[in-house]
Amino acid sequence: MRLWAVLALLGMPLTAQSVQSRLEGRIPSDAVPVVDSLVQVALHEGLPSEPLVQKALEGGAKQVPSPRIVAAVQASLGQLRDAHELLVRAGDQPPIRAGEVTTVAWALRRKVPPSTVAHVVTELPHPPRAAAIHAIADLVAHGFDPDSSAGLIIAAVHGGLQRDRLLDVSTAALHEVQRGRTRDEAIAVVRQQLPNVPGPPKPERGTITRAHRPDTPSPP
Amino acid sequence: MNTIDARIHQVLDGELPADALPAEQRDATDAIRAAADLLAAPVPVRSLESRVMAEIHRPAPSFARRVTAWLATPHAITFRVRPVWSLAFAAAAAVFTLFYARDVGPQLGEHEGIAQFVGRFPDARSVHVVGTFNDWRPGTIALQDLDHDGVWTATVVLPAGTYEYMFVVDGERWVPDHLADRLVADDFGRENSVVIVRPVHR
After folding, report:
1. Is residue B164 part of a domain?
2. Does residue B74 form part of some domain?
3. Partner residue opposite B188 with nearest CB, options A72, A213, A219
4. Distance between CA B200 and CA B202 in Å, rounded?
């Protein structure tokens, strides 16, 4: 524990330096210290900081004025806090993975009700749950009932589907709607198919040949 | 060297009856005659047929033993190639390396996938995609419209994950991807498109 504290103290200035270096020249100079302090708050609270940096960089790239950048970063910090608290209330033990907090915050931004997210966390106690939550968010965004969507994805997990294959479940339900079924019918049909939902098409050889790697992709 | 009595010679030659000899010489005569018969008898030789049949009836060695024996036995391999064919082969290998092997694209890691960005911007001079995958840095990932039909595309290798992005048209106009399945508010009054990149090697 003492070693951890020492390492944290040693690492904090480096983290601050690296955050400032990423922000300088990318956002208005008066916003840099404010955003940096918000990032330090996030680190202190055990929250992921990368979404805050990304939000600031996004605002800078879109040439948004400083007050709006700071407000957006503060809003993101609030979303991360809400997500962290939701995960703890639902039974996750701190320290909680940064990816889980980010995913839940993202789902809340996509209007997935907190009660639905909490239900998923309780039913699927073992992270990672990102794919499950993304699949539910996709269904909710297309007008499916949140609880029915969660029920379908949880059933898919219990049926043996994992990780990205859960995205195929939501895609299958969306395809059923495109074929003319109601959303309730679509969920019922896909639930009957489980776990045999079609997978995604593999990229063609030409697609891979054309692909190129950006210089410095940021981690998600 | 012992000499043989002349009368024994005579008996062996049939010039004297054996009875004409004393008992001791008769025994010697019989011994000599038996030895002569033994020397005169033909040596038993197996016929070719019997030897072939014996080989046929011998159980064949197992497959593993034959493979082991083959592997352990040195073999001479001889290539007879005309120099002109060698040059032709080298030229074909060079062509393959220069043109085909160069176009196989990037090697994808276990946790990498491919994102395809497509947008229709008929009057655009340039289109870039900007998002959380490139720190929202404009100008790093350009879309192309090679056939000038107004449809701009880019195919990019990214680590698997979820990314928010927008298109930047002509360096100043920010436009969401209307073909994206997912949109999310950007907290600046607009919406970002969202792409989930799945690993190609599942």
Report:
1. yes
2. no
3. A72
4. 6
| B114 three-state secondary structure | strand
Name which residue leads in pLDDT, A1 or B69. Answer: B69
Q: Which of residues 165-184 of A touch B (CB under 8 A)?
A: 167
Strands B161-169 and B173-175 turn out to be antiparallel
The token pair that represents A3 in the structure block:
């070693």
**What is the ipTM for the molecules in this complex?**
0.84
The tokens describing A148, both together, are 């029915």
Alpha carbon distance A108, B184 (integer Å): 10
> Which helix or strand (DSSP H or E) is residue A6 part of?
helix A2-23
Size of interface A-B (CB pairs under 8 A): 115
Does the CB of A196 have a partner CB in chain B at under 8 Å? no
Confidence check: pLDDT of B99 > 80: no
User: CATH number, domain at B156?
Assistant: 2.60.40.10
pLDDT tens column, A137-187: 999 999 999 999 999 999 999 999 988 899 999 999 999 999 999 999 999
Query: Mapping DSSP to helix (H, G, I), strand (E, B) and coil, where does residue B91 land?
Result: helix
Q: Quick check: is B82 in a domain?
A: no
pLDDT in the model for residue B102:
57
pLDDT digits (tens, 9 = 90+) for A59-93: 999 999 999 999 999 999 999 999 999 999 998 88
Residue B163 Cα, gap to closest chain A Cα (Å): 6
- Residues 6+ positions from A133 with CB-CB distance below 8 Å: A103, A104, A106, A107, A112, A117, A120
Contact B156 A167 (CB under 8 A): no
Q: List chain B residues with CB under 8 Å of A71.
A: 187
Amino acid identity of residue A146, one-letter, is: P
Question: How many folded domains does chain B comprise?
Answer: 2
Q: Summarize chain B as % helix, strand, coil (round to 5).
A: 35, 25, 40
Distance of alpha carbon B4 from alpha carbon B25, whole angstroms: 10
Quote the domain boundaries for residue B170.
112-197
Q: B180-183: which pairs have CB atoms within 8 A and are 24 or more residues apart? A: B181/A138, B182/A110, B182/A137, B182/A138, B182/A141, B183/A141
Residue B54 lies in a domain: no
Phi first, then psi: what are they for A108, rounded to 5°?
-65, -35
Q: Do B162 and A130 touch (CB under 8 A)?
A: yes
